[in-house]
Amino acid sequence: MRRSPDEAHGQRPRVLLAAPRGWCAGVDRAVIAVEKALEQYGAPVYVRHEIVHNKYVVQTLEKKGAIFVERTEEVPEGSIVMFSAHGVAPVVHEEAARGRLATIDATCPLVTKVHKEAVRYANEDFDILLIGHEGHEEVIGTSGEAPDHITIVDGPDDVAKVEVRDESKVVWLSQTTLSVDETMETVDALKTKFPLLVSPPSDDICYATSNRQAAVKAMGADSDLVIVVGSKNSSNSIRLVEVALDAGARAAHLVDFASEIDEAWLEGVTTVGLTSGASVPEVLVEEVLEWLAARGYADVEIVKTAEETITFSLPKELRRDLRSEAAELVSSRAPAETCGPGATAAEV
Fold first, then answer.
1. Is residue 338 pLDDT above 70, yes or no?
2. Cα distances (angstroms) measured from residue 133 to each of 152, 155, 191
3. Which residues are catalytic?
4. pLDDT at 326
5. Which residues on adjacent β-strands are paired with residue 225?
6. Rounded Cα–Cα distance for residues 105 and 81 (Å)
7. Which of 16, 18, 70, 246 is the most buried (most CB within 10 A)?
């Protein structure tokens, strides 16, 4: 039985269930885009990198006919390829054009916003300090928009080694899935070093990341144990574990599935906090709730800190006949290299 936060529990075992949690608008858009592409064009549809960082989602889409690849060159000529929610650099669009591929861009619009900011500030000849985790797909994509202008700053410890050409023309941007608190700690350190540092017009950390962290903060201090449902390669899910511990939780663990929970974690635990990363479907949270209920944690309180109503429209490419376009690209004798900078093969 789910109960509201104002109901008394005493010391009975309980679960504090974070809200909001799970899928954000960008993830919802990307996953539906793969499903629609498979329905509209038939299998296979290739996806460059995992569409979102969640093992269950990837496995489910693979069963429906999606093929995930790490490099554009792995996609056969004349195929459809989708770019993941994390975004890609312009060079990837050029690779797709050379490979005569029809493309669908499922980049989260909030990531696209950061890309546009990078291009804008590079055009104004700013040095761009991109706060993010080196090697993360989103950071790779954003860096590729302006490689000669961007320096990656992977946390406050990186600040000391940062060098810029002109301290009066420096701006910071960030990966969208970072810890809000750690990002601002990095920004503060950068501002101390570069007093004229410019901030982006709006916060780059996405609303969903911020909201999920706020919900975990609200329940963390009251939780003996926090379970975060999410995959090991999900940046925002990993951050939720860190936020829970910083908020006062005695322990916090990241799991993909209920079967990964260790019953030993429940020893001496009265209150379990439960949340999920922004790429996690609700079915996985429900499985954890059932697992906990079977072990005496049947009372569930919702800890709600925000309402989310944002939605994004599906990629415009889904309104076209990409199979025909891909076939025309292969049969055409015009060299794919004639594509303009940043153009995709589907736009030739």
1. no
2. 8, 8, 20
3. 138
4. 87
5. 251, 272
6. 9
7. 18
Residue 288 and residue 2 in contact, taking contact as beta carbons nearer than 8 Å: no
Nearest to 30 by CA among 239, 286, 213, 281: 281
Cβ–Cβ under 8 Å, residues 67 and 44: yes
pLDDT band (50, 70, 90) for residue 11: confident
Give 83's contacts (C-beta < 8 A, 6+ positions apart).
Answer: 48, 92, 103, 104, 105, 106, 107
CA 272 to chain centre: 25
pLDDT at 76 over 70: yes
pTM above 0.90, yes or no: no
User: What residues pair up with 103 in beta bridges, in sequence order?
Assistant: 81
Number of Cβ atoms within 10 Å of the Cβ of 337: 8
Alpha helices in 12-150 (DSSP H): 25-41, 55-64, 90-98, 109-123, 137-143
Cα dist from 271 to 1, 5, 260, 280, 300, whole Å: 15, 13, 19, 22, 10
The residue assigned the tokens 């941007």 is: 173
Q: Are the C-beta atoms of 27 and 279 separated by less than 8 Å?
A: yes
Q: What is the DSSP letter of 198?
A: B
Phi/psi of residue 296, nearest 5 degrees: 100, 0
- Please, what's the b/e burial string for 77-115 (b: 16 or more CB within 10 A of its CB; e: otherwise)? ebbbbbbbbbbbbbebbbbbbbbbbbbbbbbbebbebbb
Rounded CA-CA distance 275/255 in Å is 11
